[in-house]
């Protein structure tokens, strides 16, 4: 069975990319058996839902609350240029 550390890493990763079938199965079994990881999964889902709701509403806000296209482009470049952190 997965450790909680590995399960939380996979839960986070699964928000960005689909997991291979075997990892999904192992993760599902772990989450079924582990209340703490189940709670973590629920919290991640809530954060994702909040982020989506916020991003949908931010463009409808007042003009002075929106990022300029230039600022958005700078932020995207900074994110893309950031090296991926290694896993330990």
Structural class: mainly alpha
Helix content: 55-70%
Biggest β-sheet strands, sense, barrel: none
User: If you compute it from the alpha carbons, what radius of gyration comes out, rounded to the nearest whole angstrom?
Assistant: 17 Å
Strand runs, count? 0
Count the DSSP helices.
4
Span between N and C termini?
19 Å
Low-confidence stretches: none
SSE string, helix = H, strand = E? HHHH
Instruction: Look at the structure and give the mean pLDDT.
Output: 86
Give the overall shape, derived from the CA principal axes.
elongated
Write the topology of this structure:
Blueprint: H1 4-14, H2 21-33, H3 35-58, H4 69-81
Describe this protein's structure.
- It is elongated and about 50 Å long.
- It has helices spanning 4-14, 21-33, 35-58, 69-81.
- The chain has 4 helices and no strands.
- By secondary structure, the chain is mainly α.
- It is 69% helix and 0% strand.
- The model has no long low-confidence stretch (mean pLDDT 86).
Defining traits:
88 residues; mainly alpha; 4 helices; 69% helix; elongated
Short structural description:
By secondary structure, this protein is an all-alpha fold. It has helices at residues 4-14, 21-33, 35-58, 69-81.
């Amino acid at each position: 069975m997965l450790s909680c550390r590995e399960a939380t890493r996979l839960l986070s990763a699964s928000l960005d990319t689909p997991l291979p079938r075997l990892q999904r199965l192992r993760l599902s079994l772990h989450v079924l058996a582990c209340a703490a990881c189940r709670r973590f999964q629920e919290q991640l889902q809530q954060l994702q839902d909040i982020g989506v709701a916020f991003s949908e509403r931010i463009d409808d806000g007042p003009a002075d609350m929106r990022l300029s296209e230039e600022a958005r482009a700078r932020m995207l470049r900074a994110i893309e240029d950031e090296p991926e952190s290694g896993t330990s």
